[in-house]
Amino acid sequence: MVKYIGKRLLYMLISLWLIVTATFFFMRIAPGNPFTSEKKLPPEIEANLNAHFGLDQPWYAQYWDYLVRILNWDFGPSFKYKSQTVNDIINEGFPVSAMLGAEALLLAVAFGVLLGIIAALKHNRWPDYTAMIIAVLGISVPSFIMATFLQYFLAIKMGLFPVARWETFMHTILPALALAATPMAFIARLTRSSMLEVLSNDYIKTAKAKGLSQGVITVKHAIRNALLPVVTYMGPLTAGILTGSFVIENIFGIPGLGAHFVTSINNRDYTVIMGVTVFYSILLLVSILLVDIAYGFIDPRIKLAGGKKGE
Amino acid sequence: MQISKDKFQLVGSKYEDAEKISKPSLSFWKDVFIRFRKNKLALFGLVLLILLIIMAIIGPHLTGYDYRTNDLTNKNQPPSSEHWFGTDDLGRDVFTRTWEGARISIFIGVAAALIDLFIGVLWGGIAGYKGGRTDEMMMRFADVLYGVPYLLLVILLMVVLGQGLGTMILAMTITGWINMSRIVRGQVLSLKNQEYVLASKTLGANTSRIMAKHLIPNAMAPILVTMTLTIPSAIFTEAFLSYLGLGLNPPLASWGSMASDGLPALRYYPWRLFFPATFICLTIFAFNVVGDGLRDALDPRLRK
Predict the structure, then answer these.
(1) How close A210 gets to chain B, by Cα (Å)?
(2) Is the residue at A32 inside a domain?
(3) A167 lies in a domain?
């Protein structure tokens, strides 16, 4: 187990280094320098600005400097917003995004698992078909279209929810729903197929033969094993919710990190793009690693590669 | 009720008859097709897909309008007999643009899937067949690249390389092939020690022949399913990027960019968002159900 975690950590660090390096060099070759959009600057001022941001240094010095700063959790200043650093932007936006993300995650898991279990228990009957049609729709409708239609029909036309902004709990419902729809559909399908597989196992028949009720069998025996594949999906789920938040936060005017990221893309605010990309990558890689480790603990049948026998 | 004896007739049993195969023999793909046909949803998806492709081919020519000609006197017209899907803020015909967008979206999806297929099969095939150190090194490389978050990298590349069709496909395929290579490698690993491969080797076939004639055709089922499911995800990524303002340059029409243009006008001119959005969903839906249907039809474990 320790060996496995060590190995995974090493790969994670290499992936991270790769993305840090890639962002660094991408931003260097990106068209235009950070000050081009402003008025033509006198050469002295431009030289001063370059010196202030360390842009007069040779590239290897800048690269080294950047690596060291990232290790110190310092993502540098924003080129567009003079008074803000990237750290400020992350500290300000991330809690909001995390709240929204957590709500969407809960929604996706709760309803996804529920739909999947209902579909499996009523296999090939109408609840199954209904659940699977909902799931296929959820997968087919991209989150930003879902968000737009939810906003248009439920908020603007019917006035059931606030249209935008981030204030009360009511404000969080529509964005969380839009964000959760696609992952919920995936989870529903995953739960259904693994539940069907589990239900055909002999130990379920044994439980039935002992005279246990359907409810007890489902809750005590089937669900626990059927949920294992859902746990593996948590990594991609986090990624999906995270990237989904870029557009959802934009549509609903939520001041989260995703919305800031999109703004920085449109402004070509390179340091913010770099910093947020690296931050997101760390977040994702760590959560995927945690999920994989957790999986090893939850399912004792899994022998993690690199681990010894009997561990 | 009486049944007279002469209604019965002794047929006798012949050894040859017992051994005779009464059903015509089915090739693998015929068998797959029969199972695919039984899946109503998948069949519906296939029909939908064919319709969408036909419309993408003929759609832009059905009306007399051009997808890029502005007509500022006819801005934001609702759907009518003149403009079937209405017009947008520059007076361009939304019907023509929708099908022009279909071409681009489907082209992006198919191109991304084909490039993924090419690199993935080559990489995974070599890694799986060679095994040992080569396999170890190649798959480690893939693992590290796989760790890089897909959409973030795509966004980053689009920011750096600039918008456009080519850069978008490049950005999507730069890590997109890894999934395919893993699947191909797994298949090749399980197939390469089978007797028929050994027989082929004994007969003097070289590596590329064994790969092309034996290993890849036998791994075709999962490859095909992965491809069909790559296409909708590429179409989704295109729409997503266009939505972020990182899509194609105007006046090129893609569903994503049309939806993104139509969004601010949703309250007053909903058709500008409605049509591209509907077709994005329909296309992704069709590819997904066809992919699922194929997977079920190809997987012999699901045979009943």
Answers:
(1) 29
(2) no
(3) yes
A213 lies in some domain = yes
User: HEC profile for A99-122?
Assistant: HHHHHHHHHHHHHHHHHHHHHHHC
CA within 13 Å, CB half, B106: 20
- Nearest Cα neighbor of B181 from B137, B228, B120, B136 is B120
Q: B193: helix, coil or strand? A: coil
H-run or E-run covering B121: helix B94-130
Q: Is residue A86 part of a domain?
A: no
Residues in chain A with CB shorter than 8 Å from the CB of B288 are 136, 139-140
Question: Residue A107 belongs to a domain with what CATH number?
Answer: 1.10.3720.10
- The tokens describing A295, both together, are 């999986």
Give the three-state DSSP class for A85: strand
Minimum distance, in Å, between the CA of residue A275 and any CA atom of chain B: 12
SS3 percent helix, strand, coil of chain B, rounded to 5, is 75, 0, 25
* A 98-137 → B contacts, CB under 8 A: 136-137
Give the closest-approach CA distance of B155 to chain A in angstroms.
Answer: 9
Per-position pLDDT tens, chain A of length 311 = 778 788 888 888 888 888 888 888 877 776 655 555 555 667 777 777 777 666 667 777 888 888 888 888 777 777 777 677 878 888 888 888 888 888 888 888 899 888 888 888 887 788 888 888 888 888 888 888 888 888 887 777 777 777 777 777 777 778 888 888 888 888 888 888 888 888 888 888 888 888 888 888 888 888 888 888 888 788 778 888 887 888 888 888 888 888 888 888 777 777 788 888 888 888 888 888 888 788 777 776 665 544 443 33
Considering CB atoms only, which of B144, B232, B266 is closest to A11?
Answer: B144
Domain total for chain A?
1
* Whether A136 and B236 lie within 8 Å, measured CB to CB: no
ipTM reported for the complex, 2 dp: 0.76
Q: Which domain holds residue A206?
A: 91-298
